[in-house]
Specification:
With about 220 residues, the chain is α/β, with parallel strands linked by helices. It is about 45% helix and about 10% strand. The radius of gyration is 17 Å and the shape is globular.
Length: about 220
Amino acid sequence: MGGLRLAIFDCDGTLVDSLAAIDAGMRQAFARHGFPGPEADHVRRVIGLELKAMMKCLLPGAEPEIHENVAASYREISDQERRDGSRKDPLYPGAADAVRQMDSRGWLLGVATGKSLHGLRQTLHEHGLLDRFKTLHTPDTSPGKPNPDMLIRAMDATGTRREEVVMIGDTTYDIEMAVNAGVAAVGVAWGYHPAGDLRDAGAGEVASSFAELPDLLDRLIGATA
């Protein structure tokens, strides 16, 4: 099938600023198991990875069982915060407008994230964007980034080809996933990894604001009749 365009967004650090919530949840989870809380900058660097991979980075000397247990505590804390409404993942400025604009221009939209599917769906729903995204991919059913499986599944789900697809993300894990899948990669400068690192990882462009993103993507993959 030709003539399609698929834009796949990362979530944390790209659509929403979740650093404060993730950092607080990590500190609580670590405390439950007697560990000092990780530094916020260390948490920032590993956001985007699948949760157990994050734990391996933040607790490098711990046994796999510890990684599992702390990850489970983090999930419990995050789920409770979502149930009681205290979890806040604010959209970045201009995100909703850019998503709606791209939808109106005929882009198919998807998400590939390290979040759980439940957390992703709730986040998008809270911001009134869930219906805009046609395909959602998480470590619930795929290996985590930078494995390309989530992007391959997104292409399969939408009938798109590699040359019709762009991945938009704020971390080197997003860019490496795109490179591994053979699709275009666009970085964003407002997230958790420096723009230079994104370019070094293979990003063809780095957007400085959501306002410029729709036109940038249109230039990258133009609409066809």
